[in-house]
## 1
Amino acid sequence: MINLNKSLVGVAFITLLLILSFIFSDFIKQADENILTSKFRIRGESAPDSSVIILYLDNDDIRAIGGWPIKRNYYALVIKVLNELGAKVIGLDIALINPNVERPEYDDLLTNVVKSSGNVVLVGYFTSLTKDEPNLKSRLPEKTGYHTEEKVYFYTGEKLNLPFPKLLDAAGGIGHKNFYNFKVPVFIRSANKVFPAFSFELLRIFSGAEKSSVNISSTDTRLISESKIIQIPYEKDGTINVNYPGGVSTLNAIPLVEFLQAYSLQQKGGITDVDVNQVKNKIVIVGVIAEGMTDFVETPYTKQFPAVGIQAAIIANALNNDFLKIFPDYWDFIFVFAVGLFFIYLILKLNDLKGLLILLAFLVSYSILSYSVFIIFDYEIPVARMLFVQIFLTIGLLIYKHQVIKETVYKLESERSAIFKKLREREDKLIKLEKELQNAEQKNAAEQTAYLREEINKYKEGLRLLSSEAVDINVYNISDKPKLKPLNFENIIYTQSGPMNNVVEFVKKIADNDSAVLILGESGTGKELIARAIHRSSKRKEKPFIAVNCGALSETLLESELFGHEKGAFTGAVKDKPGRFELADGGTIFLDEVAETSEAFQVKLLRVLQEGELERVGGTETIRVNVRVVAATNQNLVSSSGSQKLRQDLYYRLGVFVINLPPLRDRKVDIPVLAEYLVNMEDPKMKISTNVVDVFSKYSWHGNIRELHSVIKRAVILAKSEGRDIIRSRDLPEEIKSLIENTGDIADQIIESLRNKKFSKSAISETAKELEGLNRGTVSEYLRGYCFKTFVEQDMNIESTITTIAGISEPDTIQRVRKKLLEFISNAVELVDNTKKPEENILVSKPKFKNLPQKYHYYLEKIITDYQK
């Protein structure tokens, strides 16, 4: 139990820290804003949203069409073209405040076009924003703004500038383009109404919502139409937390002059790179992005983001329902306090607690959680207050504990002593029971004999479990095993007697030349690690190493990523971009999952490999590059052809040197050194038990080293959460832990017995009789499952499977095992239909799983699935 006084000290301390965090709230908020900016940048930029298209005028365009201001008949032309192309909503992000006295006919033309369109939204702006109560004289015109019954605390606007009256009356909607401290207010108060943002009005017309169906509250507003409801959440002051997609490159922006030229060319039957029809049923914003004429705002990605881009981002957020949501301050205080209470309990309760390490583990986990929630749910969980409070709380309590609490007894040593004491007691008891059994058998006391045998079996099982637990406490020390001396080559951990030794020696031989390398191996075997080792061991090591996952990108995006693109090559290509091959010039490029690319793309890649030259997407200039290519795949490509495989000519070009990485299940000798290395990487003070290392060597590791690392990371966290510095079997996942619990289990006993009987005709019956409590069916099913397991582990090689199962090379035994194995496999696949999908064949073959022990189901599924190939 935790001493009450110590707990009260902890509660008082955390309360004080929370008060301090409130006093210095400006510092906390600034820290959270900086962290949020880093999250955006780590997350990276999103693809441009296709629902909003920006047609912009830059400085060159403005000069080309006669300078500023642009003639209003030009705007009328743009609106007319966009309506002909089927744009659903047109936003004119240009303040047309005063009528054109010199050319009133242009005003009339623009007004008539806007009125006949019915889908044009114009902008206005307030001269200033405040938090004061609105001036009663500052009233909105009758046709603008919205009435709201609810008391809202939005920003107040002063001196609203609107389009000239005739144009204002013709508009389908009108909204403001004001910012306040880099935030966008959805509504701004006036004396009698609230005035909407430009993006809000675009959304309203796009959704088909009537002004009367707009529902405004203090926390959100809803646009309600017959087909959809769009919800826009905001803070109490009415400002939106924009979920920025990225920098300027994420805007679906097209130069207006180029767009009109493309339209004109298309009307004449010509072909153009700009798809003007993409505006159909979209929101199109016409605006200016030009130095000295455009408002630029700072975002997490850039300090120069055009204001029109913010309006587009808000529209995209609303349509995709992915506005940034922020954890409320009051919940932050409550959660920090609750976590603080947990830390108080943890620090004051556990023995030999390393407070700073636990703090680090928690804060890293909490930061990862905050980042993950941000990525997955667009939800910002602030971390600054948590970091501030928990760091100082842990340090303070550790100092307090050091001063007032004496060193406690070592839990691990006492546990070990208790286990060995129980072992001795059970061994003594077992000896006595066996003596009693001998006496009972001599006296032919059947009832007593049966009872004693049952008791002896119970004690033997108890001894087995206790022995396993005792081993679980013993620390595995690799230094005691000189044959397992770990070797480290460029972070590749292996032993001299393991299969990776040959791989590493081969890498050393081929590293310092420029020939292509193809790495083959299952997922998680370390293909990128080998690629990096080749690069770091070569003469190119001072140059870039660029890794590209070909399987994660579409063909179009992959081509752009690898070869680069020119400005205007496609929608969103607002500037020239060098490809990964150019960035890797002089160094090494790693093409992971290269077999996932299409044949058409492989032809383009082949040219780069053969000629050392490429052309950017949309470009005509030939660019020469000097790059060493290292490729990788988890597919067997020796005889590959067709879809999702490498062309033969590309295979031969890439496979100058081929490296086959062995799966972890074939590196049993390396597993102890890998486990120790990964544990040390997670926590240098953490150790691992002998029992855990033994079971690691027995496990099949379908996820290879990546799975091993994941299991160890999990185990370290669980061990530390219990104040232990040793990983034990309880820290492992159930599927691995079961191997410990089943040590010496019935399957091993059955196979050993059958081997001793050389798999004779009567072997199954004799084994069932020998292993009391089993019948012939159970023994036969375990043998069937063991055959399936061995067959899969031997890569479905019949001969090696037979040898492994038989255990000896005696010809008669081999022949009996062969007959049994072929019978089992033939029966397993008899219902497989090659025209059906794997999951359908597994479903049809469900009767084959009946009575088969659960742990062998995976292997039977694997055989059924692979039989189709």
Note: Residues 405-412, 639-644 have pLDDT under 50 and may be disordered.
## 2
Amino acid sequence: MSQADILTTERTDVSGRVWTSAGIILLIGVTGALFAGHAGDLRLILGMQVVSAILVTSAGFLALRQILAGRNMRNLQDTVAVMVANDPTPSYLADADGSVLLCNAAATARGTTQGSLPASLTSELADLFANPVAVLFRLQSKAQALGAAREDITTRRGNVRLSVHRIESEAYLWRLEDSAERQSARGVDVVSLPMLTAGPSGTVLFMNEPLRRFVGQRVKSIDRLFKTAPLMSGRVCTVEGIDGPAEFLVAIVSRAGGRQEIYLLPADAAAGARARPAEWDAIEDLPVPLLKVALTGEIMASNRQSRELLCSEIENGTRLSDLLEGLGRPIIEWLQDVGLGRGSAASQFLRGTNDLHDIFVQVSLNPAGEGRAAHLIAVLNDVTELKTLEAQFVQSQKMQAIGQLAGGVAHDFNNLLTAISGHCDLLLLRHDQGDQSYLDLIQIHQNANRAASLVGQLLAFSRKQNLRPEVVDLRDTLADLTHLLNRLVGEKVKLTLNHDPSLLPIRADKRQLEQVIMNLVVNARDAMPSGGEIRVETENLLLPDAIDRDRATVPAGRYVLVRVVDEGHGIPPEKIGKIFEPFYTTKRTGEGTGLGLSTAYGIVKQTGGFIFVDSEVGVGTVFALYLPAHDRPAAAAIAAPKVVQVAVPTTFHGDGVVLLVEDEAPVRAFASRALRLRGYTVLEADSAETALAMLADPALVVDLFVTDVIMPGKDGPTWVREALEMRPATKVIFVSGYAEDAFGENQSLIPNSVFLPKPFSLADLTSTVQRQLQ
């Protein structure tokens, strides 16, 4: 019976069922009406007839829908059957449950039920996959969401590609493609070299025909095939064959899921290999980068993978040193040492010389040939990703080390500057403006302050400087900076400021933020020696979702975006990733220190923001600052009263007992003299242990602890907590050359404590002590 006859029969059966049901319904309606009124209630009869008509109409629509659905499915099957009839790839049309609706001749030929339609895809693929249900479910789920899906799978019979296309909501077209056919000349069975595919645990998943012929059987584990361990690219290994052991040069290609493709290249015939040497052309398409190198350094031959890896055509006369570098000695010496057996044959990591491709290659050498025909076979392995990760790790360690160094140097410098500026203040108390030494003392004091500012820059890029955040309106900040910025850029450069009229406030250290803007504007000016325009733009930015950029994740939220745009020469792509490194500069020697952008980076990160750069050579550069918007409204931020530091009169006389704990003798000498001059009783201790020993006397009365934070032995917070157990009412002043947040958590746990950063002046010290003792 033809498909048309089947469709007509189904249509007739459905129609018959519909009209039979309608007649029964109508008969029930009339009978009910007769029983209800005997003589017949006309209204009831008419009502039942209307209901019957509605039911008949609904049944008719359902029948028509079933007919059309059946027709669509038949048309779909006819279309798919014509499309895949002559396809050499086994193809199946199945419903959502996996039942096979039709298959082509190629599928019938390979099927488990020869000559008939398979019951399901699960039974059809059971000879290939250990768990076909999981494979089919995974691919069908992807196809249902994306429309199509495919997966390359290593099976017990070789590598196959299973693909699926969603045809209708309940129909899927499956294709089972053989990898050897798909890869054509690159197919593993077409390659004349022995190869196998191994899983992560060393299980042999596949062996091609040349290897099966050599071994004489199919082995299940690589341990039973190779007698040399560990297995590495570029090493010669011994393989037990049907005619005895033979030596091969191993080349390994890593694949997804931890799988490895292991290729066996014929070793030198004079070394005892039983395999027939292959011509170099036989490995042109081998997916392993290989080079044939003379002992003098010339590349004698190469395959396609090596040329693609090294981004070079490798013409006649090309030397290995023309393509790779970074050995620390001439490459020709390394080649000759390995070729003549004078040195270790361990693999080396080399860097590509091509300026456009920053690549790293692991090179393993294996000697081959004798006498004048002696040469080396180099097996290459791309380790660019590995070396990039290593470089990032080393860079992070370097930044951490520099930050620790800067913090330590700053701490020692702050101690020295505290002593210098402090003793200078003591001298100024004994000299008035008419004194001949007064101006010299003022110069010393000013230069000490400049040195303190330089130490602050060192702490800035290590993100350890003391920030004094406040609510800032960037429009006012940039307006105050405009005059200074115009002087910095000069007459050739035009400076333009564009602000969002409803710009949100931010919370930052105003002085440090001004330094960031000035650094960026000065860099923009230097990038335009012939003049141009610098634009400083601000706007509000709402990020509904987090964004990932330059290995950083910007969380969702409200930000104030600041952009500094120039029309300069731009930054080359190979340098743009290094510009925030300390002491790295794109300027010529003597024109830049390399601390400007690293300082800006440290300040922005410590403020809680992000800084990014976009640059195009010959077009210009854009620096973008993402600064978190503050919750306080801008009006409240502007109206907030400013705290004015009132200078403490130099004639006030304090009262109280101060325990001064400081391990630096010059700082301790200055601080004790300054406090005694103001009338305080000062007890000195050079360590925490000495201070605790003094406090062991219950008769000793102490009103205030002034202690350094970092000291040999016990640090400041540690000994203060012990002392407060016996004297809980005593107030505390912590002083340190490090940032306050270095011990902010400890300070928050100690009541009645404040922080005084070094270097501090005589007025800073005495006023802080006076406020604590009030």
Note: The chain has a mean pLDDT of 76.
## 3
Amino acid sequence: MFIRTCRSPRLGVVIPIFGHSSLLIEAIESVLTQKADFAIRVILVNDGCRFPETDEVCRDYAAAFPDQITYLRKPNGGLSDARNFGIRHILAALPSVEAVYLLDADNRLRRGALARSMAELDEHPDADWVYPNIDMFGTQQAWDYGGDYSLLLHSTMNLCEAGSLIRRRVFEAGIMFDAQFKLGWEDWDFFLCAARAGFRGRNLEDFGFLYRKRPESMLADSARDHPVIEAAMRLKHKELMQPDALMALEQTECPRYAIVAPDRGEVLYTVDPLADQVRRLTVTEFAADIWRSVIIPGRYHTPPFLVVMASDVMDGLRTAGVLHWALWKIEDMHRHAPITVLNIGRAGPERMGVVHSARETNRGAAVALSIGSKLLKEVLTDGSTYWIDTLSQPTCDPPVAGIELKLPAAFDASEKLTRPTAVLDFLSLVHRLRASPFRAAASDISWDWRKPGIAPRAATQEIVRRSFRGAAAFPRLRDGDGHVGFILPLIEFGGVEKVALNMARGLRAYGWVPHAFVLEAQDIAVSLEWRNTFESTNFLAESDFKVWGGGEFSFFGTTLPRSTTEAPHGTAVGMLHWLDVAISFQGGAVAGIMGQLRRLGATTVLSLHLSDHSAFGRPEGNTYLGLAFEHAFDIFAPCSHKLADWCHAMGVPRAKIVTVQNAPGFEVPTEFLARTQGARDSRRSSDPLRVLYLGRLDRQKGLERLAAVIAGTKRTKLNVEWRVIGTAVVSDKNQPLPAEIKAILEPPITDSDALSKVLAWADVLVLLSSYEGLPLTILEAMRAGVVPVATDVGAVSEVVRDGENGVLLPLQNAVTGCLDAITTFAKNRRLLRRLSARAFAERQGYNWTIAIEELAERLANKDVSRLAERSLSSFAATSPPPI
């Protein structure tokens, strides 16, 4: 081994050698003949080369140039090991060296390469390495890797050649080549490691690096093995390849949307319009950007989607909790047409919905329009504008897809969504961009003799889409808050939706930010309380995703929905990927994607309410589907202790079960409850007994039994006053409501004050269901002092104790037992008051804040570890960490 030193070299060149004994001479000479005003030290590393000539050449050069060349020998360890060997020698023996250049033995440099690259580092102290364009000799090719460095682009391609000039501080931070990574493209791995640590590169236009290109080489082997190498790279750099990390880079480096706000004369470059680091440009600056990307597309990036949307429209969508969804759905609709528009319609007072069309729509009323940058550039360079100008005419040539978002009629920001000028604003922008003086440069002349080397720069949205099978990624970035998604098939304020609403309110009290996701329905009920609780409401609106049905296989008698395995999961995962917690409420087929969300870092929860029954009375449904996908859920959250025991008995580990016992579905002031209970106690024995049914009108609720009881009280002329309140939704559409029910049916009530008054009116609540979970109606009634008379099904006996605070009836004797109970209460008001007082006393003080406490604690503990694992600060760093 020969070790020589020279006086204070500023730059070190490491040349690893294995098998290029003859070509090595050209590499060494290209360094020795460099023109520079600083000293350069060459480190020759013989990596156990089997050719004697290699040793001879290295010895001769080290002897001839003892002040410039150091010769090191080592056993063969591979290219990365050899590079590290030379780098470590520089770190240990040459303290004056500020940067290291890596030159493979079969490549070479033009005469001023190292002086130019060192000057680039001097001029840009924030750059940690300078990388070249690729000019090949042998097989002559030239590739342009110019433009701003992007870790997002680097994550999908080998952007930086090993022949780069790298600051010493990178190696001193512990970044070295991975000697175990021998599949190829070791330089790709090295620079990704450096970038993940906060270091950044910079391209030098005329570096002077010359790459020897031969038909058969290590690079050719790597190209053949590209799928294997890329898979290994994605595994090793898993955190970087996560969608949330890629989207953080997308926001800072290659924004997805250029949102043009005509009323402000500005353009926003962003992924998430509510995140930090939104770049704001004037329209003139945007014009320069767009024409640069037309002229040299591989070097200059412009957002792949142009969205024309006035700022007040954006504000209105944000207030409505649909801004991110609108952008996502507009982008998603580009599957059907190159231009998409968004219209705003009006739904009922407490309704919300979405209608989308893959073809012609009401363009004239659009409040937003989106066009892909590829088509936009074609429009800008077209000799005529006739084709695009037809957008403003009744019949247009460009295919247009449309979305109509219907918001509640009383929505308080509706005035901000009444600017239907998106099409005209877009056409005005097109003509302004076409009038730009930059357009003259976009001719058939080629402005760069190199070929574009960074093809992904023109379609950066595809990088994060790889995680979702090509589907659009919901444009929501992590902001440090805990975001929890409540996933439902529909929202009509049945028991499940009420549980979801109250769990959301409970978790919100613990600092979580709730969001609603509707899987199947495209028209939903949204009360003011719902809108005030959930930060956003989002529709999957994917016709191929069905919550139930179509499956070929079953699990313990429950058919596995086809959409658990065959649906467009990419779209659903793309919508939900950014959540910290995902909770399924009767979500059916969404169980099939929970494992994917879990792998992306979300905590997955299954909220369980009851087992449905088949037409033959066999238990089935969401409980069994949850068991089939048990591995995909972190937490099972049954609504009762009975259901929790059932889950455990069916194989769910006890540690995964967190009981969230149902509580009343709405809040009532304590003073009101006390006052109404006093009024109830003061009723006379001669007053009619007030009996109430409150709930959905379907077969599960035992409507035929209820009708028989009503008929029985009338037949025996009991002193009873009935009220039946509910929605006439019958599972079997061909089965009419019993006449006894239809005759006294009142419309459903969702308002809390109205529900409180109804319960204050009642003495007895009747619920003769065939199967149940833990009904909210019973809990609300008992809190108000109403005595429940209910069938002993599900977890009803968990709160109702026969003869103590209510009446429990065996299902097979429900009608007779209910008639007996009503008869007894009508005649024995003292017994009624005693049961009422016990029910009232026992249900006071228990609310959803208490019910959700254990789940909130479990999520908080899990969230801390998950967020620590998923920190994105290193990916978004613009300067290196302290050394």
Note: Residues 4 and 66 are 6 Å apart (CA to CA).
